[in-house]
Amino acid sequence: METYIDEYTDFMERVCHKSENTVESYRRDVLQYLTYLKELGMTDIKKTTKTTVLSYLLSLKKKGRASSTMSRALASLRSFYLYLLQNGCVDSDPTASLVTPPVEKKPPKVLSSDEVDILLEQPKLNDSKGIRDKAMLEVLYATGIRVSELIGLNVDDVNVQMGFVRCRNLKSERTVPMGHKAVSALKLYMETGRRALVRDDEESALFVNCSGSRISRQGFWKVIKHYQHSAGIEKEITPHSLRHSFAAHLVENGADLQSLKEMMGHADISSTQIYTCFVDEKIRSVYEHAHPRA
After folding, report:
1. In 167-198, which positions are buried (b, 16+ CB within 10 angstroms) versus exposed (e)?
2. What is the CATH number of the domain that holds 247?
3. Owning domain of residue 121
4. Are the CB atoms for 176 and 250 separated by under 8 Å?
5. 42 assigned to some structural domain
6. Is residue 85 over pLDDT 80?
């Protein structure tokens, strides 16, 4: 059954135009499912049924997997079986009538404004790496773009004079404004730090590593962890933390959800509505401090 994996992965990349992260996630989920089938002694994918898939999801639940993990696993299997059905590898889709488990939406973990300030002040501007790190952190918090979008930026995707970045993928394009601190940090990087790091004049990547090529997701992860440690912040900080913090702080200060949706590149407003919980928390805090009998 594993012979289908490479063909399915290629289909997801070339035909469906899914992102690298999505393809890897789906591939991992399907491989785990096939491992489960192998443990059951099932070697023919055609013999799997709705009961087979339900049993697999139940096994995930027994292992303590979150409902979000189970929902993602089912989505991956739907995609896999649809591919198999379209290519005549199975006679029916056992996931067709299955209902996606409800996912509990927990408030995203964010940094306070003070914590963001401390984190962003950590990079030292006495070398090219520090100048680059400062620019990356400032741009990420100022725009709320995804980490994949940040490291995917090219030089011609930014306009420091007008103060915006342009994010593009196969399906859409959006322009996101930057504040003056991000613009200042980015301008310094482009004029000094990047010139010192880049070794090939043809390099188009905006943010590069010490070898002069585009910085990777793993490379930026190390940057975040380094400055979290130097800042003495105990909260777990991931590259996505600054995206969440960007959104939460805008909503707390009165930004409307439609504008935030556009800036964050959400396909649906429901993805943006999760940040309304921070408005509720702020209102409660104001009430408790202001009402004499709170």
Report:
1. beeeeeebebebeeebbebbebbbeebbeebb
2. 1.10.443.10
3. 113-286
4. no
5. yes
6. yes
